From TrEMBL:
Domain (VOC): residue spans on this chain: 1-128
SUPFAM superfamilies found in the cross-reference section: Glyoxalase/Bleomycin resistance protein/Dihydroxybiphenyl dioxygenase
Superkingdom in the source lineage: Eukaryota
Protein name, per record: VOC domain-containing protein
Membrane-crossing segments per the record: none
Gene3D superfamilies listed in its UniProt record: 2,3-Dihydroxybiphenyl 1,2-Dioxygenase, domain 1
InterPro entries: Glyas_Bleomycin-R_OHBP_Dase (IPR029068), Glyas_Fos-R_dOase_dom (IPR004360), VOC_core (IPR037523)
Length: 135
């Protein structure tokens, strides 16, 4: 359904360091770097048919996080959720809401963690698992 997700950054080099480390925990490689015709830098991280992008705003205004927006990244285990979370914190992110852990809801058990990147964008690491495998 989705082609890509793009978030804005006010410090593109800081964002690349953050996302290289955090997305690396999911097996994502180096991003494609693109200079827009406007001169603004963009990074495109591609993995398993999905694209996550970070850009300097091309309108020249300050990047701001979307109110009510969350970008969720699929993880393969509860441990990968914890590593994603801890790596985000080690690279300038901020833990928000509850600590990484199991959440029960109408969609079944999920192991997840929420963080904000250095620009304030809300990220979620999520594993849809079952009780028997630690989620």
């Amino acid at each position: 359904m989705l082609s890509h997700v793009m978030v804005g950054s006010n410090d593109i080099e800081r964002s690349q360091r953050f996302y290289d480390a955090v997305l690396g925990t999911l097996g994502v490689g180096e991003p494609l770097v693109n200079k827009a015709s406007s001169g603004h830098t963009r990074f495109f991280y591609r993995h398993d048919g999905s694209t996550f992008s970070v850009t300097e705003p091309i309108n020249g205004e300050k990047a701001t996080p979307g109110n009510g927006c969350t970008v969720a990244f699929s993880c393969k285990s509860p441990e990968q959720v914890r590593v994603f979370h801890d790596t985000a914190l080690a690279h300038g992110g901020k833990s928000i809401e509850n600590p990484p852990g199991l959440r029960e809801g109408s969609l079944g058990p999920m192991y997840l963690a929420y963080v904000r990147d250095p620009d304030g964008n809300k990220l979620c690491a999520i594993y849809h698992g079952s009780d028997k495998d630690g989620a």
